[in-house]
Amino acid sequence: MIGLEFYKMCGHGNDFVIVDNWSNQVGPADMPDLARAVCRPRFGVGADGMIFIEEGPPEVDFSWRFFNADGSEAEMCGNGGRCAARFAYETGIAPAQMSFMTLAGVIQAEVKPDSVKIQMTKPSEPDLECVLEVEGRSMKLCTINTGVPHAVTWVNDIEAAPVQALGRVIRFHPRFMPAGTNVDFVQVIERNQVAVRTYERGVENETLACGTGSIAAVLLSAVKGVVDSPTRVLTRSGEELLVHFTRTNGVFDNIYLEGRVRLVFAGRLGPDILT
To answer: Which fold is adopted by the domain 127-259?
Structure first.
């Protein structure tokens, strides 16, 4: 891995290390360990996840492998997908209008001058009556899979939400095992704005933004009849994502996540990255 070139990219505080792996410098067996080492704060580059850009089937511009900071592979990541799209565009791998393959299916994306817009996969049927026994009491949640699983709860004060403590308990609840779930705390501010804080599995902490979590929060809020499209999502980073959707006869379609992407720096891995 010595000398492997990487790019550090950020979408609303959700940060990723991206590697052009077109020529398969990193084999699949080495990806989990490398992701864990690279994503470690202070000891590595530091990131919420690591993305490997690879050659895909003929119908797409490229394929990706996405790994969380703990080395687990995830099906999809909204902000990671937006970062991957800009990376592919900036490096000449794909045009501004592109498609790429993920474990959640084919993703469409568009790189604009000031933002990246990505079409998300169709969500699962939401469960609006998920009741858990949590710390000795019953708690009602709504669940949905927006590429990865999410459990959503609404709060009156987003600042006071117990994201770390309660989020971790729900993430590891037997109801969601063995895969676990991401946990989103949502405050509806107005019909076109919500605030969201997310405890992310794989990172095992609150992140500054979560694309699939923003989608989950908005879609389930739409089911409750309290938001319309498009909805602005205030993330923990202080920046806003924009979620677009249509809903016909209760079915969601044309789901897009849009926002700014930062290419922060590029570098090469040193000889001690795995130690």
So the answer is: Diaminopimelate Epimerase; Chain A, domain 1 (3.10.310)
Show the tokens assigned to 272: 């001690």
pLDDT digits (tens, 9 = 90+) for 143-165: 999 999 999 999 999 999 999 99
Query: Tell me: the pLDDT tens digits for 32-80?
Result: 999 999 999 999 999 999 999 999 999 999 999 999 999 999 999 999 9
> Beta strand pairing status for 193-200 and 231-234?
parallel
Domain positions in the chain are: 5-115+261-268, 127-259
Residue type at 180? G
Which residues form the catalytic set? Answer: 77, 210
CATH superfamily of 5-115+261-268: Diaminopimelate Epimerase; Chain A, domain 1 (3.10.310.10)
